[in-house]
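Task 17 of the worksheet. Students: predict the tertiary structure of the chain below and write it out as structure tokens. Keep your answer in the requested format; marks are given for formatting as well as content.
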Amino acid sequence: MQSIFPFTVKSLRTLLWCNLLLLSAVAGRAQAVTPPPQKGPTVPGDRAVLKGRIAYAPANAPRNIKVAIWATNTLANKPYVWGGGHGTFYDRGYDCSGTISYFLHHAGFLDQPTPSKAFQSYGECGPGKWITIWARNGHVFAYICGLRLDTTGLHQEEGPRWRADYREPRGFSARHPVGM
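Model answer:
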């Protein structure tokens, strides 16, 4: 009996530890997977406006585009992380395709994160009215209601950000979600 007792205590301790880890993982996931904001800043017209790091959605944009813009505003202080946003839409940081995947997911156009190369054949060919995705092997960015969503900037730090400056799309394929 004495030889079994330490084993039982050790097993019980291990079981409690595993349950604690599982509960923290579930609690962390529940916290990270919050629904997108249903309200946010808007401006009149068809074009978004950047104020600081926050994009103001155009009032004339479809509701799902506005919701996705407001949701993507939450990435403004996240770091660039290679592969970030690939395993889950809710990550500690994002790379280019993780950022675009995040936006498209919150707009209702994407069920799982997508790598940059796959965006070369995403949706329909050519620029869209509200969203144009510019993709090539190794990088992707988008113009959404006139603002660039990208992880690289000319004079700003890297990371998932809205950007007001222009980026030359030479060498990229233009795509857009069906109907957008």
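Marker's comment: The two ends are 71 Å apart (CA to CA). The longest strand covers residues 131-136.
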